[in-house]
Amino acid sequence: MPLQPRAFVISLHLFAFTLAPLMNSPEDDSRFVAGDGPVNRRTALLHERQTRATEEPPEHSPLAERLQRVHARSQLGTPLAESLAAPAPAQAAPSALHIATSVVTAGGGVVALLGVIQAAMLPLAAGAGIAVLGALGWWRTRPAQPARSATPAAALFDTEALQAFDRALEAAAPELGEQATQRLLETKEAFQRMGHERPTHDEHFTVEDRLFLRECLRRYLPDTLQAYLRVPAAQRRQVLHEGQPSAHDALLQQLALLHGEILAREKKIGRSAAEELARQQRFLESKKSR
Hints:
There is one protein chain. Among the domains are: 96-140; 152-286, no CATH class. By secondary structure, it is mainly α. The chain is 67% helix and 0% strand. It has 10 helices and no strands. It has helices at 3-23, 41-54, 62-76, 80-83, 96-118, 121-140, 159-172, 178-195, 207-230, 247-286.
């Protein structure tokens, strides 16, 4: 049977072909290195660069936040909390006599120290006397401390409310249109005019009026801006509910409503301030000769 040896040889080849992947597997052969990533330094560095290039930058990086603040400042001006902050008290410059007494005091101290080192009583006593006299002169000629204000400059608004308003404007500034930006600037100017006032509560300007102004800064205006920003940018000028204005129109309407109420409170502050003058006028008229 001449075909049997040939069939046997073919069977051996098939068996060897089947065992070859197992015998020469890279995982089992120490001459090969296998891995999911790069296996040498050159390809590892290339792989790292490619990975960094494909990574998305963080949404709120420090640089992006800084650029956002710069954009908001250029578009909406100085933050309200900064413009209404109490100015730092000016420090008076030291006089020439005050400087001279400081030098005399230091010189007396040096002479007294030399007397101690040399164990000489005369330089020690002279230096101590000069230092004491110089210290007394320094104390007498020191600059006067500036008088502290009893009330803060922004007495009408608290710092927390001002900062909440500034944060809301900073977040919304890049996405506001020209009309909304102009309305917010007018509202901000009204707050700046009222910020340094210290109105008293009377029949014109009540406690409710004061609370309304603070809540406008703390909640009403920030809530309006945040609700507007939640609407997708592509749909802000579309009517999303039947019978309701678009997000853009609703924003303008709410800003106009709040602005009108804020101006009304500003007029009340003016009437409250003028009440004392009117009272004085009535008093003087009552003293007229008859």
